[in-house]
Amino acid sequence: MKTIDLATWERACHYRLFKDLAHPHYAVTVPIEAGILAESARDLSISMFSCLFYALSMAANQVPAFRMRIRGENVVEHNAVHPSYAAPLPGASEGIFGYATFEHTESLAEFDRRRKAARVYKPGDPDDASQRRDDLIYCSSLPWLAFTSLTHAYGDADDAVPRFTLGKFEKRHGGLEAPLCVQVHHGLVDGYHIGQFVEAVEDICATLAEELR
Predict the structure, then answer these.
(1) Is 95 left (phi over 0), alpha (psi -120 to 50) or beta?
(2) Which domains does the chain have, with CATH numbers?
């Protein structure tokens, strides 16, 4: 992890402009095409969620802006960020969820294993150490909705952990698409960076599809 030098950082003026706004977060929803990846994953008994979750984690680590966080008066850039996601809470009624966190890995097979092995905690569980970390990305899925827009809840104006939500897959334009909502802190992430991120997600999905075939 490194601390960003605000005296020389070329985005420092943008950071200061957005940092003190009451609502410095914004969200963009885009369609992700993953039909070929879905077929390849199904053939190997890997869940589509694991594949796309892996692509999100890989892409977030490739774009420096998505690894930046606000800590008091400082901005830091983590060497790596790790996935935390909403998952069904064991023993609870259908639709009741908790949170699971695990360390990022560039191996899809290991990523899938870690996701399945991660302990799911109740929201606010004092034993969940991830609540005290900011080197995370938050992911969730709404497989029931092909939404066109979405916003997430945030803790405070300095909460800079990116939020990602995947929606329902539908056949469109001769392929299979799902909406992806990306919500970020504008003090650290501009639309240009979201463009880099989405391009990386699509490239990773295409590469994965070829590797899994």
Answers:
(1) left
(2) 2-212 (3.30.559.10)
| Lookup: tokens for 116 | 């399945």
pTM greater than 0.85 (yes/no) = yes
Tens of pLDDT, residue by residue over 78-132, are 999 999 999 999 999 998 999 999 999 999 889 999 999 999 999 999 999 998 9
Token pair recorded at residue 204:
């990773």
